[in-house]
Amino acid sequence: MGKMSLANCLFIISLFITLSLAILGWDWVRDFSASVDPMLADVDQGGTTNFTVTVYSGLLYHKDVSLRAEYEPYIDVCFSPKILKHGDKPVSMVRISAEKEAPLGEHLISIVSNGADGKEHICKFTLNVSGSTPTPAETPNPKITIIYPSNMVHRHENITGTAKNIPKESHMWVVVYPHIKNRYYPMGEVEHPNGEWVCFATIGSPDKNEVGARFDIIVILADNQKTQEKLEKDRDSLRNDNDWGGASDIPGGAKEFTRVTVTRV
Known about the structure:
Elements: H1 6-24, H2 26-29, E1 32-37, E2 40-44, E3 48-57, E4 65-70, E5 75-80, E6 83-84, E7 91-98, E8 105-115, E9 120-130, E10 143-148, E11 152-153, E12 156-164, E13 171-178, E14 185-189, E15 195-202, E16 214-222, H3 225-241, E17 254-264
Parallel strand pairs: 2-9, 11-17
Antiparallel strand pairs: 1-3, 3-7, 4-6, 4-8, 5-7, 8-9, 10-12, 12-15, 13-14, 13-16, 16-17
């Protein structure tokens, strides 16, 4: 079988082009089309998302295509690039933002492609705006200091200090810890703990042998009612019954924040 002549090849090619144009029409090769990917997205109020616009030019369409968007208030659309030049990559990255005040629900956005010759094509993008999840406010850590005493103490003293960021549901207590007994003695709850505070404390027993003994003055926070009741019970036993048995440990549900070591005079 002989080789196909050049004339036959050209005839077949021209026939293919003619049939294609007959099927698709001349407008297709002299026009362009556009599409978005993806066609929909979800975003929170105040959030952003991205999608792409791609322009497909016909065989005989050699024009630049500019992009714009039609959208509702509280929505913002930005194209990069905004003009797709013939011969360059026919893709634009689109950044879409929903303001914090954007209404919830679906927002239909029209992406309009305009050719330099006046041709125009529109494709649709759906943005679903949902309620934004608020960021939990960071809770500042409590800060507690003991200003007085810092060294020598008498048996009866007003303990003073400063405090801030004490949660409303927490109870601030002063506790005395004698080194010679290794026991904890709740002195009292501090009222209005945020700011400067004062709490009366009895440091040790009337025993004169405790003169020169060392004591820790501790500030704790109780964060539940059971712990609060245990501290109140131990404090009342000491006040009413002179019960110097003390507690072997700080009750569970309480957290130590600061302490100073002092010497009894």
